Structures
1.
Amino acid sequence: MLLGAARELTANPDFAGRLVFLFQPAEEHGQGARAMIANRVLERFGIDEIYGIHNWPRLAVGHFATRVGPLMASEDNAEIRIKGKGAHAASPQRSKDPIVTGSHIVLALQTIVSRRMDPLEQAVVSVTEFITDGQVNVLPEHVVLRGDTRSYLPSVQKLIEHEMRAQATGPGTALGSEVDVDYRHVFASTVNHEAETGHACTAAHRALGADAVTPNFPPVMGSEDFGLFLEHRPGNFSYLGNGTDGPHCNEPLHNAAYDFNDTGITPGVAY
């Protein structure tokens, strides 16, 4: 899409303004925007506004969707390391079982959203890995829990981090295990600016037709590296439909069967 737009504009040079095409690497791990900003790409090329787009399943080909405000969530990652005391499985009284401590922590973390957050706010706290160095007949010495959290507001991010540290250290103290929490901010929330979202919708109306534009698309809990750019410059991030009835274009993002629908390239270039 970006190459096609660059080709069309260079073939028709009566364009009023200055346009910079950013081919951003390393989006999936949240490092591309960070590296480009550190390299002062916004300053070196005099970028005043910034726009991005992503193909989207379950949305008709050529249909454009966006919203003012939060469109995608922040992503934070956590690693909780628990050190207990290992023992033979037949002598649990001689251990300080980190599996029990870890299990208490997993359950406690579920109360962050349900009992610590304002129910009108939105967030997800998920424990995704539970790793031990035990064996079938050996209670382990160490447990590592890893997890992923999503939210839209910096205040909610701060609350989740604070509560995660508290919820993890409490069971550790009670059950005699040492607990260490490493909490990392990976993706900023993708928060669209009002004026620039208006510009994006106007461009989509002209290129795709008014019936092909959804200006108040519901926010999603996925994360996008582009959000960091929007903390440094006003702009907009939008979705372009990948299709609703193809053999694989309607599969969820990151599903192994997902297939980018090439017929979406032309409307993407037009936008």
Note: DSSP finds eight helices and twelve strands in the chain.
2.
Amino acid sequence: MLKATSISRSFGEKEILSDVSFSLKPASINGLIGPSGGGKSILFKIIANTCRADRGWVTFPQGASHRDVGLMFQEGALFDSLSVYDNIAFPLVGGKVPTTGLPREVRQEVCDKVSYILARVGLTRAAYKMPGQLSGGMRRRVSLARALVARPKILLLDDPTSGLDPVASSVIMDLIVELHNEYKPTTFLVSHDLRRLLPVIERILGLFDGTIAFDGTLPELANSAPAFVRSFVSCRFELPAPSPVIDAPVVQ
């Protein structure tokens, strides 16, 4: 189980995260929602150990560490000077790119893994293009492939459909679900596209004002979430009708 305990982080005098705690079940697919600038990206970077918390800690499942985390950054963070192939290979070779300088047996293993994930995201023909030659949707798929290529036990995807048109967004979200079903990493998704996010996740965590204001399922969100959380969601997604309250029978 991936567990965050009392995570806090400030920048100057501004507290971004305040005593954030939660746990994620193995092989689950979860969503993190909340207003822009609310600390979601910082939380992901803390889990992936690319940013340090001021207080608190992250506990990984037995046998796992931050090295078993695949992080897709919100901004994509592709290396513009590297081909699509070498961008995706980067996590496999510890940054030793281009891969042509590696021993032959290592090159072959890397090639097999990169070729497989390129095919899964539909970018085989773009393997030796540069990021600047790609559309926004293709760049997103490269970022997703890089996060997935090592088959991480924990997958953090920070707004993978940001800036994409509805068709491209649907393709990316369908691909994420398909790949999650394929090998079951513990998956944590941030997305502002709640119409596509909420139907595919098992559990929702709401990060508001630096704290976890809601943690539960979609029906629980509709029935028992704080009013400000329901209001945030209902502006972007049609919530299911709350379950009617049934009074207990009166015993005569």
Note: The chain has a mean pLDDT of 89.
